[in-house]
Structure formats: structure tokens, C-alpha cells
Amino acid sequence: MGITNIGLSSNSTEYLRHVLAHIQNLCAKAAEEGATDKHQQIRVVHWLRKLRSQPTSNCTWLKNVLEYANVLLHMLLEGVSDRGAFYENAAPRSVSSTSEIPEPIRGAVGVVEKVNKQIQTQEQDDQWEWQRVWKGAFDKIRQQLRVKTEETETLTIENKELLALVAGYKKALDEAERSQRELEAKHLAEIENLRAVHS
Known about the structure:
By secondary structure, this protein is mostly helical. The chain has a domain at 3-132. 78% of the residues lie in helices and 0% in strands.
């Protein structure tokens, strides 16, 4: 059962969970029966964690993860892992040339390498895209912050000028009121003097 038969329907994510659970069960069973070594078990668990951590919201990405999981399951079912295919840099055991490697093993390993390369390339593309998006967003926010800072500084200067102008008007008004009071007091004093003279 492969991903080409099921398509990328709404059940694809559930199918992926089923495949990964099946792989985990096979690995645990092989460990209990002593049919696998500790290094191979660690490698399978590592790949399971990596596959489970992959995002599945993108159809293309989900297809790659499904293909990788199917190949890993196929290798476990065919016993390919017993020949060292789980080790990225391991040479085939008891095989003197690549022409003596059984075709299913070479095909499975080739698909694993191809899918692994696709995932690594996608990871690099996603990392570059996120850096580009975040850098663009950061530059935009920084530009907006600079504009806001300039506007705030301008408003602060204008506010100081207005406060100085208001203080000047208030001072002038106080002086005018004081002069008016002094003039009124002088005028009243003159009136009182005139009354005193005529009386």
C-alpha cells in the first residue's frame, strides 16, 4: 500500500500516523525478539521522531513525508535494515560490489536518498523563505518605528513651542491686567482728590 494509491485526501495524515505506528511496532517487536541491534533501533526511532515532527499542512510536503515513511516501512518488512541500509555511510555487508546488491535493496535505498534530499532541500527553502519573510517584516516594522519616532519628536518640539507661546501670552495678559488695575486705582485716587477739593 503506497501513497500513490491513497492520494492526498483528507485521510492522508491519518494514514501517515498508521504507517509510523506500524513502523514503531515492528521495531519494538524486532528488539524484543533480538532481531535487531541497538544502533539500528536508535536509528529507526530517530527517523520516526523526525518524520513525526514534519509539518503536514502542505500537500507537497505531506507527500514527501508519506513516501519516506512508506520506504522505511518497506525496508523493515523486507529486512533491508539488517544489511546496514539504515546507516547513511555504511557499506553493504558481505557484498563486494554494488552489482551484487539485490535490486529491491538498491531501489529502496535510492528512494530513501532521493526523498531525504528532497526533504533537506525543502527545509533549506523553507528556512530561506522564513528568513526573507521575517527580515521583510522586521525591516517594515523598523521603518514604521522610525517614522513614529520622528513624528513623536516633531510633536514634542511643537508642543514645547506652543507651551512657550502660551506662557508668553499669559505673561503679557498678567502685565496688561496689572497695568489696568494700576490705572483704575490712579483714576479713583484722582476722583477722590477732586471730591476733597470741592468739598
